[in-house]
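Same chain as my last thread, 261 residues:
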Amino acid sequence: MKNIFLLLSLFLCTSTLSKDLRIITTMPSLTEMVYFLDMEKSLVGVSPYCLYPEEAKKLPKIGSAIMLDLEKIVELKANLVLLPTTKDSRSLDNIKRLGLDHILVGYERLDDIITSLKELNKKFNAHKEEKISDFERSFVQHKKNDKRILVIISEEIKSGNIVSVRAAGATTIYDDLLLKLGATNALSSGFSLYPELNLEQLLKLKFDYIIRVGARENNEARRAWAKSIFASKIRFIFKDFAVVTGPRLNKLFAELLRVIR
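reply #2:
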């Protein structure tokens, strides 16, 4: 570890005084924000989980927000690291020890994402105010309706049958989007952010639809839900943007609107 800090000191003066940003992002949400602001030419490293856009897959990998590859960050001569606000503080401590500039970026709620885009736009001098405003305006507030929606992000399946699920509770991004759509989150109170529910708990909930979100197609999940007692209420959104809390959330918003109409 000491060698890393010594190595950084050899070029710290040139990297930090340079006008050219060399940005590291540590999770998909932050990578997509950089691309949204058209700052990808300054992006020199990403996490292995950053799969969008396609170009991001080709960039050097620097570990994740929880476990950074500090040697790689030094090798890439990064001078700005974007970190999420809610991850392990050890990564932040190590970045501070390296003497690198960093920004803690909010990403878990809709307001967090909008605020972060505005702050990064200012930091990067990207001049994307209009683009950010268009993004913000895309979340049109709909009139209150009586639809109760349960959002599921995963399920445990045994012998082809669903035995438990992981759902989205209150104060999550899915709760934010449902409120914008005028709907009610069936799990809006009395639960943790993403609680695990067994079938007995699921049966006690009142909802009009279950919306299963996921990053990619999942035929096993489709078959299990199709044979369950909830088959008539289940809807699927298997899209990569459905689980990344970033500037493509407007696409998820549009999909949710289509599904619950």
